[in-house]
Design brief:
Helix content is 29%, strand content 15%. This is DUF429 domain-containing protein.
């Protein structure tokens, strides 16, 4: 199969902790898709800590991601990339105000409404029956800081709420595969890979772990954000820009 080496690439990254090398249940996973949603190379699973540390700039980082997936990165050196990352890519404005400015929020009651523990995007999901995790209370701080570290190094500019960029080649967004399980849109996209309603019930050829299937879902969110953004819930004007936004299907 021949791919247009200047067309966009869509990379899904399911994030593991900083030191997930020997974690049997959760590690970093990558999947690369082309514009026709074909899987390029091979899904990868391991720890991205060392490739992140070894990358001097954005191009080097992208090249390492592609090489890990057994792709010749030099063939895609002009391809723009959309990277969808499965981890919180910001902390809540309430938490930042508390830590940086010593500014307390108003009275706090229910956990899902706690402005320190959850961003507005997560509270939005709670209001719709989902249960997103908190980077502060749910032991995903390692993954969250890993994702934010990558943004700070390789996509430090905010293009719009929930979209980070290097202003040249890379755009990064936040995805959340658990928010896609009830989506007909995502189910239809998954059918291309032989995945049924429950993604972990059947793995496509070349996939060996649920982390890789989650990375595929992230890559599909990246693809939707580029070609069919109307099928993803978009942030509204009152969302704090630095908090970011979880891009999930409208029909979930």
């Amino acid at each position: 199969m021949t791919s247009d080496t200047s067309a966009p690439l869509f990379i899904g990254w399911d994030v593991g902790g900083w030191n997930c090398d020997k974690n049997p249940s959760s590690r970093d996973a990558l999947v690369v898709l082309d514009s026709q949603r074909n899987v390029l190379g091979r899904p990868w699973r391991g720890n991205l800590r060392r490739p992140i540390n070894q990358s001097a700039d954005t191009d080097a980082f992208i090249s390492r991601l592609l090489n890990l997936c057994e792709l010749d990165a030099s063939r895609f050196d002009s391809a723009p990339v959309v990277l969808a990352i499965d981890t919180p890519l910001g902390f809540s404005q309430g938490f930042i105000d508390l830590v940086v400015n010593g500014q307390a929020a108003d009275a706090i009651e229910g956990s899902s409404e706690n402005p320190y523990l959850f961003r507005r995007t997560e509270r939005f999901l709670f209001e719709r029956g989902l249960n997103p995790l908190s980077p502060l209370k749910d032991m995903i701080g390692s993954q969250a800081t890993k994702g934010m570290h990558v943004l700070a190094r390789f996509a430090p500019m905010i293009e719009s709420c929930g979209v980070w960029t290097d202003q040249i080649r890379l755009r990064a967004i936040e995805a959340y595969p658990s928010a896609c399980k009830r989506s007909n849109t995502m189910s239809e996209l998954h059918e291309q890979y032989g995945i049924g309603k429950s993604p972990d019930a059947q793995w496509p050829e070349g996939f060996h772990h649920a982390d890789q299937v989650d990375a595929l879902t992230c890559a599909l969110i990246a693809w939707l954000s580029h070609f069919q953004p109307g099928k993803l819930v978009q942030p509204t004007s009152e969302i704090p820009v630095r908090e970011g936004w979880i891009f999930a299907p409208v029909d979930d």
